[in-house]
Design goal:
single chain
């Protein structure tokens, strides 16, 4: 009865319902959908989830491409780290544009505060292993070195360019 209530509420609000909530209801359908009517509701919810994920994924890719076109590198990097469709790889063209944009943002002329911001966004992006800065700051300040050290396990190649050995990930 509890699952059925959640399923009916989800069906009534399919387009506005958060994807995580919809996934939760669909995931619990195995144990909650026991009769024919409940199984039909579960099937309808699964189909709705598939449609929503595909739609949200297409919107995400379009937004990512637009943000890159607008030159908003940090926003693009942060957006790339939160795909609506788990496990879906970035298309090669968007990935290469993201890598190039991030590399262009990491130069010796870039302010060190900006370096910290871009590096933080790169560290959680799916392209973090491919980003190679165009050049390093001549004299990195302590804040930048601390950030490079902190993110060294996520961006080991960038850390090595600064002469910092990647630290062990905490257990």
């Amino acid at each position: 009865a509890e699952w059925r209530d959640k399923a009916q509420a989800a069906l009534a609000d399919l387009e506005e319902l958060d994807l995580r909530d919809l996934r939760s209801v669909v995931g619990s359908a195995e144990s909650g959908a026991r009769d024919e009517e409940s199984r039909a509701m579960a099937t309808e919810l699964r189909e709705a989830l598939t449609r929503r994920v595909e739609s949200d994924h297409a919107k995400w890719l379009a937004e990512l491409a637009q943000v890159l076109t607008d030159g908003r590198t940090v926003r693009a990097l942060r957006l790339s780290s939160r795909p609506p469709k788990a496990g879906a790889p970035l298309p090669a063209d968007i990935g290469s544009r993201l890598i190039a944009s991030a590399a262009e943002s990491l130069t010796s002329e870039t302010a060190q505060d900006r370096w910290i911001t871009v590096l933080g966004a790169v560290a959680f992006s799916p392209v973090r292993q491919q980003v190679v800065p165009q050049s390093l700051p001549a004299e990195p300040n302590e804040a930048l070195l601390a950030e490079v050290t902190k993110l060294s396990t996520r961006t080991p190649e960038i850390a090595k360019l600064f002469g910092i050995e990647p630290t062990e990930a905490p257990r």
